[in-house]
Automatic annotation (TrEMBL):
Domain of life: Eukaryota
GO-annotated molecular function: oxidoreductase activity, acting on the CH-OH group of donors, NAD or NADP as acceptor
Name under which the protein is recorded: Short-chain dehydrogenase/reductase
InterPro entries (alphabetical): NAD(P)-bd_dom_sf (IPR036291), SDR_enzymes (IPR052184), SDR_fam (IPR002347)
Similarity section: Belongs to the short-chain dehydrogenases/reductases (SDR) family.
Pfam families per record: adh_short
């Protein structure tokens, strides 16, 4: 049963020129929402440009590099509404799945900057612009949702194979950031949640995986719509709770 239907809402999706982000944009548009789709390189975001023509007035393409605080500061002014109802922090990098011997300071810090610091600063920028959470979300508008796309590889409990230091650590850190946001933003009417997409065939996995992007995103959106409680939770695309 749907506890909240995501239609007619204002949705921001980061890293949406390809992969899961692009699929989030397509599915939110087809459900009748208005979307801000962000990309690092607007010229290369050809599919988003095509979608913007197809859905005239409902899709805004915004420039955003989540590893660059100056770029993040410019995001709120590119959002054409007073209120963001759903923020999907999707942009992420694999950080190269390196062995212990190959891991170095640069790959650790670069991955952390994009996967952990980026989502936090995006949230912070939209909050301080007044576009995320109260007072806009008071009066029957329903809770705002901040969904951070993490990975089961960031689960301490689930780590049975080691390695992937940069990626695992950056997603694990995103998880604790998300937990704090779920506490700090609760009184602003914001539900903050972690989503694990499954192992999905995208560029990040070099086309390997168990499911396609359509299945993964359909599942993650159904989590946002159908789970009775979102705040501080962590689910995968099949609604399974993930151990932290
Ligand atoms: N695929 C999976 O199996 C899987 C599993 C678990 C979690 N995830 C997570 O799901 C999310 C999406 O992954 P995906 O599989 O769709 O990966 P993908 O195909 O590699 O796409 C990644 C997206 O993030 C963007 N991005 C990367 N660095 C960025 C930055 N600094 N600023 C702004 N955008 C940036 C990319 O933009 P550019 O085109 O400019 O590089 C691209 O749009 C990631 O957070 C990933 O960790 C994926």
């Amino acid at each position: 049963m749907a506890h909240r239907v995501i239609t007619g809402k204002n949705v921001v999706v980061t890293g949406s020129n390809r992969g899961l982000g692009l699929q989030f944009v397509k599915q939110f548009l087809s459900k009748g929402n208005s979307v801000v789709a962000t990309a690092r390189n607007l010229e290369k975001a050809v599919e988003l440009q095509r979608l913007a023509q197809e859905h005239a007035g409902r899709l805004t393409i915004a420039s955003l590099d989540v590893s660059d605080p100056a770029s993040i500061e410019k995001l709120p002014s590119q959002v054409p509404w007073d209120r963001v109802d759903v923020l999907i922090n999707n942009a992420g990098v694999a950080g190269s799945f390196r062995s212990l011997e190959d891991t170095n300071s640069d790959v650790m810090m670069d991955t952390f900057r994009t996967n952990t610091v980026g989502p936090l600063l995006v949230c912070q920028a939209l909050l301080s612009s007044g576009k995320l959470g109260a007072p806009q979300s008071a009066e029957g508008a329903g809770a705002t949702i901040v969904a951070n796309v993490t990975s089961k590889m960031g689960s301490i409990d689930d780590n049975g194979s080691g390695g992937s230091y940069a990626y695992r650590a950056s997603k694990c850190a995103l998880n604790i950031v998300t937990k704090s946001l779920s506490i700090d933003l609760k009184d602003l009417g914001i539900d903050t949640i972690l989503l694990h997409p499954g192992w999905v065939m995208t560029d990040m996995t070099s086309g390997r995986g168990l499911i396609d992007d359509v299945t993964s995103v359909k599942g993650m959106i159904s989590v946002l719509e159908d789970q009775p409680e979102l705040n501080g939770k962590w689910f995968d695309y099949k609604h399974e709770a993930i151990p932290w």
